[in-house]
UniProtKB/TrEMBL annotation:
It is a multi-pass membrane protein. It holds the Pfam family BPD_transp_1. Keywords: Amino-acid transport, Cell membrane, Membrane, Transmembrane, Transmembrane helix, Transport. This is Putative glutamine transport system permease protein GlnP. Part of the binding-protein-dependent transport system for glutamine; probably responsible for the translocation of the substrate across the membrane. GO terms for cellular component: ATP-binding cassette (ABC) transporter complex. The chain crosses the membrane at residues 125-145, 157-180, 186-205, 289-311.
Length: 319
């Protein structure tokens, strides 16, 4: 009872702050001379595509037979060749006995298709997923090299980490596409994934290094005293313990990579951000599109954050 009494004023204060913030945004929006076009947005998630079915020869319509929502149109050419075309029943442009010429439209085939926003989101997700896998492998190897006794390996790892972390991701993407892509004849997808993987790999390397060094040295000494070699000690003793410690920052890095992937749109990869820009050029619904794109990014990262939070609790129970 006392805990409830102490916390309710803070909850009330939180609600008041959120309401004031929402009211401020609403007031600012009202001052903008802008015509909102929310009705144009849904078609960019899912739309009904209509493909015209044309007659490939001169001929006549022999018969029309309805089959559910579709219709089978039998066409007869001048040399007695028959062709059956299936179109949507409500889109038929001809009647039985009509004389048609090559290229005339018989009707339309209607099919639901995903819009550019969904396609862009899918592109963002798979590019981020592939980049994350390569970044994890690269970061793990680099992190191990960072703590290696071999001066050459350690020097290469330090150089890589400092160069990548010291330059903007946008510049790295340009170098990967315009320089490396041109020299080695690489596609824009390969360049984009490579740049993201190299960028995230440098941060993963530092996370891995910190996680390994957080494990007490006594763990290594105990494993070696049991006859394990360096590889067995690292794979069976150190890394499993380090993984539990580094999972939160590692997951945060990969979630951040989803947002960073929006920069690959500058090299004409049709991800969610580029899809949004293309929609804006045809609808002029600037605010609506960017708000929807932002919400889509937010939903993806929020779901992944909840998954990571669930995994953290499971690992905590296993401890």
């Amino acid at each position: 009872m006392k805990a409830t009494t102490k916390t309710w004023p803070w909850k009330l204060l939180l609600v008041v702050i959120l309401l004031v913030f929402a009211a401020g945004i609403w007031g600012a929006v009202q001052k903008i001379d802008y015509h909102w076009r929310w009705n144009r947005i849904p078609q960019y998630f899912l739309y009904l595509d209509e493909e015209a079915q044309k007659i490939p020869f001169d001929g006549t319509v022999e018969s029309i037979r309805k089959v559910g929502d579709d219709a089978e149109v039998t066409l007869l050419s001048d040399n007695s060749q028959r062709l059956v075309q299936t179109v949507a029943a409500d889109s038929i442009n001809v009647d039985e006995g009509d004389l048609l010429f090559e290229g005339d439209t018989v009707g339309f085939v209607k099919e639901w298709r995903i819009g550019p926003l969904v396609y862009g989101l899918w592109t963002t997700l798979w590019i981020s997923a592939v980049s994350s896998v390569f970044a994890l492998i690269l970061g793990l190897l680099t992190g191990l090299a960072r703590i290696s006794n071999n001066l050459t390996l350690r020097g290469i790892a330090i150089t890589y980490v400092e160069c990548i972390r010291g330059t903007p991701l946008l510049v790295q993407i340009f170098i990967a596409y315009f320089f490396l892509g041109t020299v080695f004849d690489l596609s824009r997808n390969v360049c984009g994934i490579g740049a993201l993987a190299l960028f995230a790999g440098a941060y993963v390397a530092e996370i891995v290094r910190a996680g390994i060094q957080a494990i007490p040295k006594g763990q290594t000494e105990a494993a070696r005293s049991l006859g394990m070699n360096v590889f067995q000690t690292m794979a069976d003793v150190i890394l499993p313990q380090a993984f539990k410690k580094i999972m939160p920052p590692l997951a945060g890095q990969f979630i951040s990579l989803i947002k960073d992937s929006s920069l690959v749109s500058v090299i004409a990869i049709t991800d969610l951000t580029k899809s949004g820009r293309e929609i804006i050029t045809s609808t002029f619904a600037t605010f609506e599109v960017w708000l929807v794109v932002a919400v889509m990014y937010l939903l993806v990262t929020s779901v992944l954050s909840q998954v990571v939070f669930y995994m953290e609790r499971r690992f905590a129970v296993s401890d």
